[in-house]
Write a structure and sequence with these properties.
Distance between the termini: 24 Å
Largest sheet: 5 strands, parallel
Number of helices: 5
Mean pLDDT: 88
Structural class: alpha/beta
Number of domains: 1
CATH superfamily: Response regulator
Number of strands: 5
Order of helices and strands: EHEHEHEHEH
Helix content: 25-40%
Low-confidence stretches: 1-13
CATH architecture: 3-Layer(aba) Sandwich
Length: 159
């Protein structure tokens, strides 16, 4: 299935067994989504993130996650080609390039692909406060999309 937005209704509350968040360079959107999903979903759900290619770690991501008491720890950006396993129940793409790659990957695989378009906050210029506001906006949009897709109370489920 390919959707342009997070699901709603009964499917939204059902957590898959494995989720991959995929974006362009695994520097901002997908690692942020991975950390937020780990907070929201049950421990039994395998959650990973990757990029079409590996980028550089972004310090603004660390800053906006720290505001929520979250951290990437020592995690570094990785490409989809670096993942040990690419068999996921659900691949959530966060950029057009990632969406096309996921659709190519899943031509012969039984995985759902959903496209959640997210602004790349690196296109924002200005003061540090303006840049931080753009990163916070991405964080909040991701958190909202995760809650809408998986339901706000999935953390209490056990698998």
């Amino acid at each position: 299935m390919s959707d342009l937005s997070p699901l709603s209704g009964p499917a939204a509350s059902r957590a898959p067994q494995s989720v991959l968040f995929l974006c362009g360079m695994n520097s901002i959107r997908s690692p942020m989504a991975e950390v937020l999903a780990r907070r929201a979903l049950p421990r039994g759900v395998f959650i990973a993130s990757a990029g079409v290619r590996a980028g550089e770690r972004d310090p603004f991501v660390d800053a906006v996650l720290a505001e929520e008491g979250l951290s990437l720890d020592d995690r570094q950006p990785q490409s989809i080609d670096e993942l040990a396993d690419t068999n996921f129940d659900l691949i959530i793409t966060l950029s057009p390039e990632a969406h096309h790659r996921a659709l190519d990957m899943t031509r012969t695989a039984a995985a759902d692909v959903e496209y959640w378009p997210m602004l790349d906050p690196t296109i924002v210029s200005g003061t540090r406060d303006q840049i931080m506001a753009a990163y916070r906006d991405v964080r909040e949009r991701l958190a909202s999309s995760i809650a809408a897709r998986f339901g706000p109370d999935n953390k209490s489920e056990t698998k």
